[in-house]
What we know:
Helix content is 38%, strand content 11%. By secondary structure, it is α/β, with parallel strands linked by helices. The protein has two domains: 7-101 and 289-324, NAD(P)-binding Rossmann-like Domain (Rossmann fold), CATH 3.40.50.720; 103-282, Rossmann fold (3-Layer(aba) Sandwich), CATH 3.40.50. Strand 1 (49-51), helix 3 and strand 2 (72-74) form a beta-alpha-beta unit.
Amino acid sequence: MPWPTGGEIEAVIADAKAAVEDVRQLASVDDSPIQSEIEWFERARDAHVVLNPRITLSKYKEFLDGAKMLKMIQTTSIGYDHIDITACTEKGVIVCNVAEVMAESTAQHTLALILDVAKNVTRSDRATRTGGWSPRGRFGIELYGKTLGIIGLGNIGGRVAMKAALAFGMRILAYDPYILPARAKLYNAELVDLEKLLKESDVVSVHCPLTAETKHLLGREQLRLLKPTAILVNAARGPILDENALIEILEKERIYGAGLDVFEKEPPEANNPLRRLENVVLTSHIASSTDEAFSRTWKAAIENILRFLREEKPYWIVNPSVLRT
């Protein structure tokens, strides 16, 4: 997440430092600057808790084999695909994210992308700046009464569902094999399989985590199920979509358009076709980037570490099976 500027960042840092002082009452804290991954690797070997690990996925097993005392990894992000969850679970290390903290800002950004694509806001802005005025070729789509398909009905997906239903009277379909029907009912969503969701939705919004199971969950075969008038939005993780397959259907205008905050390679390369297509809106992985979310993130992460040090169950455990071993 990009850091805020000016007074906002100073306030956040002050709050974070105050919270760290509470941690110091229970444990030794090393929060001095770290210049490289190698330096972090060496200094974290004797830690019981690590905040925001600075290590590549390929080195996780090596690190965990040497970190004999490690019990918890806390990240200040919703996503955790930068952490080797399998290796941590095997070593009995709890991994926690901040699942709820950025949910509101990400849900709002998702709705912004949906509205932008549906109403051709960015497309019309570009045309107007260069002297265009006629709405020809830029007629939008009304969301009222349409069907929204949500892939991943977690904290973010649930908020998107609620806002879309209340604001636009949208019918909600959801694909999420890991939730109970009671949660879907909470958001007045109908649980369906992925094929039904893709075929019947006017808008498809992606909110599942990136795992081995969800990588390229939406590939060429799945994307071809979308309606010609469909809008596809991804504010989760880029590799959940097969980007080449998405480019193909956008170039051939097989769907109405797409809104992307995330990409398979970030930032997208200069020759990435997405950068020249008119029927896609692009933002730079900023869905969760608000001053409010940034402030909440650090406070929540450190408070969660405090819970662990006080021998209380932490929130947002990604691999809860560790607690049952």
